[in-house]
Amino acid sequence: MNAQNIVRIIYILFTLSLFSCNKFLEEKPDISLAVPETVADVRALLDNDDILNIAAPPLLEMGVDDYYLDDNTLNNLNDTYKGIYLWKKSYPAFELSGDWQFSYRAIMIANIAMETLERLKEEQSPAGKQLKGEALFLRAFNNYNLAQIYTPLGNEAMDKPLGIPLRYSSDYTEPIFRTTLGETYKAIWDDLKESFLLLPELADRPSRPSKVAALALMARVSLAMDDYENAEVYANQALDIYSTLLDLNEIDVTKDFPFPFLHKEIIYMSFGDRGDLIVNDNIYIDKYLYDLYNPADLRKQAYFYKKDNEGIGFKGNYVGAQFSTFFGGLATDELYLISAECAARNGNLPAAAGRLNTLLESRWSTGHFVPLTFSDRKSALDRILKERRKELIFRGVRWSDIKRYNRDEALRRTLVRVNAEGNTLAELPPLDHRFYWLIPEDVIRISKIQQNQR
User: Fold this and answer.
1) 306 phi, psi to nearest 5 deg
2) N or C: which end of the chain has fewer CB within 10 A?
3) Domain 67-89+228-431 listed as CATH 3.30.70.120
């Protein structure tokens, strides 16, 4: 298949992904001239970085408490973004940032890749196994992201709360329906476990998944499910294979975009457009969060800058790109934090301190960091969770973290939006249904699936 046909099928897939439900289109588009015909075609489909690696949903970051907007920016937002920022129960739930369609487009491409390998009888060839592993990882990764923004956190045993629609076929005419939350998480785990068996330990480029990426995602999912024992196991297994950290002393943290593109901490590359809500120039960083960073902590300079009006802006796009994106992929620093948190929760305080110290030594100015020791579980967790928030700002995990903390009475709290005068504009209490966003109205209207509860 030539490059023109690859582009053509991607365009068709994009169109179908907008409305992948029964009887929406009167005629099936003619893709007979653009279907994958060889293993090389499947490789080309799965290597389309501009489609598959730019699918991290912006809604993973829009509701978090790490930033705020000034009154002028807020007043100029449309009703959808304003409703999201203020956690309103009702707002025009239009598809503005691709959260739904870009994720399901990636899932459709993954399904086409696997169907093609089966049709070509290449599933058991060395190249076919790796490609199938990549497609399974891609489907799991996107299903997990969708579950974080449209459902409660859950596990395989939860059979009543609604999950997301699961797509196992590229046939867009198949009806869609919402599975249970348990079915959603089982599907994610099934794909991840199979992908792990098929993938190479390390990928030859960060846009492709690997065993390390599968383990890292398994650690992230386990953490969200409060499965600290397995989260620690998966994080440590991933670090046993790849544990490289970026020493911030080796980069110029004063630059406008200090992080190198595709730097060595990145295990799997995925990022998303911030949309109109969290554009870098518009947002202000929460002062409490900013003050958590020690002056000798190089992240304070690498992540933030001071605005003309005394406010704090964000510049530390971890993706290393000079445009307004957030990194939603997988990296080694997150693995160190998962390992440290789980070790603390599981009672191994020396291991928790060791993992955290290794990370922080690469973040502080040389000679200023004093290694930590923990004498009790509570103080260890308090420090590790603060470092998690500080390290992983605008990394697509804070929303899920808040949701899982809400299940712990000692950690839960009400989120608050205030204006410039300090007056409360909105509150979001723990376990509120607004922690999972409304499904786009067009999807509800066309598919007749159930909207999220309010």
Assistant:
1) -90, 130
2) C
3) no
Into which CATH architecture does domain 1-58+97-199 fall?
Alpha Horseshoe (1.25)
Distance set, CA 196 to CA 168, 199, 242 (Å): 19, 6, 15
> Could you tell me how many helices (H) and strands (E) the chain has, helices first?
18, 10
Contacts of 371 (CB under 8 A, 6+ apart): 353, 357, 361
Predicted TM-score (pTM) of the model is: 0.92
Q: Where are the domains of the chain?
A: 1-58+97-199, 67-89+228-431
> Which residue is it, tokens 């490059």?
3
Nearest alpha-carbon partner for 310 in 285, 336, 289, 347: 285
DSSP letter (8 states) at residue 439 = P
CB of 196 closer than 8 Å to CB of 241 = no
Residue type, 297: D
Residue 426, beta-bridge partner list: 417
How would you write the pLDDT of the chain (454 residues) with one tens digit per residue?
Answer: 454 455 445 544 544 444 443 332 233 333 333 579 999 999 999 999 989 998 899 999 999 999 999 999 999 999 999 999 999 999 999 866 578 989 999 999 999 999 999 999 999 999 999 999 999 999 999 999 999 999 988 766 677 789 999 999 998 888 899 999 999 999 999 999 999 999 999 999 999 999 999 999 999 999 999 999 999 999 999 999 999 999 999 999 999 999 998 899 999 999 887 666 777 678 999 999 999 999 999 999 999 999 987 899 999 989 887 665 789 999 999 999 999 999 999 999 999 999 999 999 999 999 999 999 999 999 999 999 999 999 999 999 999 999 999 999 999 999 999 987 789 999 999 999 999 999 999 999 989 999 998 8
Alpha carbon 295 to its chain centroid, in Å, reads 29
Partner residues linked to 285 by β-bridges: 67
Amino acid symbol at 82? K
